[in-house]
Specification:
Helix content: 55-70%
Number of strands: 0
Shape: elongated
Distance between the termini: 10 Å
Mean pLDDT: 86
Number of helices: 5
């Protein structure tokens, strides 16, 4: 399972849970205790996590390759194309 598939599965599971259940079912640490008419810090963090996960799925991080200076620094006695081949393999493995 790819990271993207895992994140989609996690998001679907999080979205199934009713926010009232999140508050009522949570053990409220001292810092999270609140009055009935106040916003629940636990559900606020829960909503933030859902939003962050949804945003990451919509806008995944883009691959950033090596600069020519970084390749030069890494290659030492190896040919430049060997470093670029390694970079291409890493991109392939991390883009899935």
């Amino acid at each position: 399972m790819t990271d993207k598939e895992t994140m989609k599965l996690a998001l679907e599971a999080l979205e199934l849970v009713n926010l009232e259940f999140v508050c009522n079912g949570a053990h409220h640490a001292k810092k999270d205790r609140h009055e009935h008419d106040e916003a629940c810090p636990v559900t606020t963090r829960y909503r933030t996590a859902i939003a962050a996960l949804a945003e990451r799925l919509k806008n995944p991080k883009k691959w950033v390759g090596l600069t020519d200076d970084e390749v030069e620094h890494l290659r030492n006695d190896q040919p430049w194309w060997a470093v670029r081949d390694i970079e291409a393999k890493l991109k392939e493995k991390n883009s899935g």
